[in-house]
Protein backbone atom coordinates (compact mmCIF):
# COMPACT_ATOMS: atom_id res chain seq x y z
CA UNK A 1 0.00 0.00 0.00
CA UNK A 2 1.01 3.62 0.45
CA UNK A 3 4.17 4.79 2.12
CA UNK A 4 3.00 8.07 3.61
CA UNK A 5 3.88 8.54 7.29
CA UNK A 6 0.31 8.47 8.64
CA UNK A 7 0.17 8.90 12.41
CA UNK A 8 -0.78 5.98 14.60
CA UNK A 9 -3.41 6.10 17.36
CA UNK A 10 -0.86 6.92 20.07
CA UNK A 11 0.46 9.91 18.10
CA UNK A 12 -3.06 11.23 17.51
CA UNK A 13 -3.82 10.89 21.22
CA UNK A 14 -0.68 12.84 22.19
CA UNK A 15 -1.43 15.62 19.68
CA UNK A 16 -5.03 15.99 20.90
CA UNK A 17 -3.95 16.11 24.55
CA UNK A 18 -1.29 18.71 23.71
CA UNK A 19 -3.84 20.86 21.85
CA UNK A 20 -1.99 20.38 18.55
CA UNK A 21 -4.80 18.54 16.74
CA UNK A 22 -8.46 19.50 16.58
CA UNK A 23 -9.84 17.73 13.50
CA UNK A 24 -9.24 14.43 11.72
CA UNK A 25 -10.54 13.37 8.30
CA UNK A 26 -11.04 9.63 8.34
CA UNK A 27 -12.66 6.82 6.44
CA UNK A 28 -11.03 6.28 3.05
CA UNK A 29 -11.66 2.56 3.47
CA UNK A 30 -8.02 1.53 3.08
CA UNK A 31 -8.07 -0.33 6.39
CA UNK A 32 -10.72 -2.67 4.99
CA UNK A 33 -8.59 -3.38 1.93
CA UNK A 34 -5.72 -4.70 4.03
CA UNK A 35 -7.83 -6.88 6.26
CA UNK A 36 -8.53 -4.43 9.07
CA UNK A 37 -5.21 -5.03 10.83
CA UNK A 38 -2.29 -2.88 11.87
CA UNK A 39 -1.93 0.79 12.70
CA UNK A 40 -4.61 1.85 10.19
CA UNK A 41 -7.27 -0.24 11.91
CA UNK A 42 -6.18 0.86 15.41
CA UNK A 43 -6.14 4.49 14.24
CA UNK A 44 -9.69 4.17 12.90
CA UNK A 45 -10.85 2.51 16.13
CA UNK A 46 -9.28 5.30 18.19
CA UNK A 47 -10.87 8.02 16.02
CA UNK A 48 -14.37 6.55 16.06
CA UNK A 49 -14.30 5.80 19.80
CA UNK A 50 -12.64 9.05 20.93
CA UNK A 51 -13.80 11.74 18.54
CA UNK A 52 -17.18 13.17 17.65
CA UNK A 53 -18.16 13.39 13.98
CA UNK A 54 -18.75 16.91 12.69
CA UNK A 55 -22.09 17.08 10.84
CA UNK A 56 -21.57 17.70 7.12
CA UNK A 57 -23.94 20.65 7.35
CA UNK A 58 -21.43 22.39 9.64
CA UNK A 59 -18.45 22.14 7.30
CA UNK A 60 -20.11 22.42 3.91
CA UNK A 61 -19.43 18.91 2.63
CA UNK A 62 -21.97 16.74 0.92
CA UNK A 63 -23.76 14.29 3.19
CA UNK A 64 -22.27 10.82 3.18
CA UNK A 65 -24.52 8.35 1.46
CA UNK A 66 -24.76 4.59 1.89
CA UNK A 67 -23.45 3.85 -1.60
CA UNK A 68 -20.54 6.16 -2.34
CA UNK A 69 -18.42 3.66 -4.25
CA UNK A 70 -18.47 5.81 -7.37
CA UNK A 71 -17.36 8.96 -5.53
CA UNK A 72 -14.71 7.97 -3.01
CA UNK A 73 -11.53 5.94 -3.28
CA UNK A 74 -11.75 2.36 -2.06
CA UNK A 75 -15.55 2.43 -1.90
CA UNK A 76 -16.16 4.42 1.26
CA UNK A 77 -16.99 7.96 2.32
CA UNK A 78 -14.93 10.17 4.56
CA UNK A 79 -15.97 11.70 7.87
CA UNK A 80 -14.60 14.79 9.58
CA UNK A 81 -14.07 14.28 13.31
What does this structure look like?
- This protein is mainly α.
- It is 37% helix and 5% strand.
- It has helices at 9-17, 30-33, 38-50, 56-59; strands spanning 25-26, 79-80.
- It has a two-stranded antiparallel ribbon.
- Helix 1 packs parallel to helix 3.
- The longest helix is centred in the middle third of the chain and has 13 residues, at 38-50.
- It is globular and about 30 Å long.
- It starts with 8 loop residues before the first helix and ends with a strand.
- The relative contact order is 0.23.
Structural class: mainly alpha
Spatial separation of the terminal alpha carbons: 24 Å
Q: Give the SSE string.
A: HEHHHE
Low-confidence stretches are 31-36, 65-70
Average pLDDT over all residues: 74
Topology:
Elements: H1 9-17, E1 25-26, H2 30-33, H3 38-50, H4 56-59, E2 79-80
Antiparallel strand pairs: 1-2
Give descriptors for this structure.
37% helix, 81 residues, mainly alpha, two-stranded antiparallel sheet, globular
Give a concise summary.
The protein has helices at residues 9-17, 30-33, 38-50, 56-59; strands spanning 25-26, 79-80. By secondary structure, it is mainly alpha-helical.
Amino acid sequence: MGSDPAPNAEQLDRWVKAGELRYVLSGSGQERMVGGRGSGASRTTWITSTCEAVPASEHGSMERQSDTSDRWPFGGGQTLY
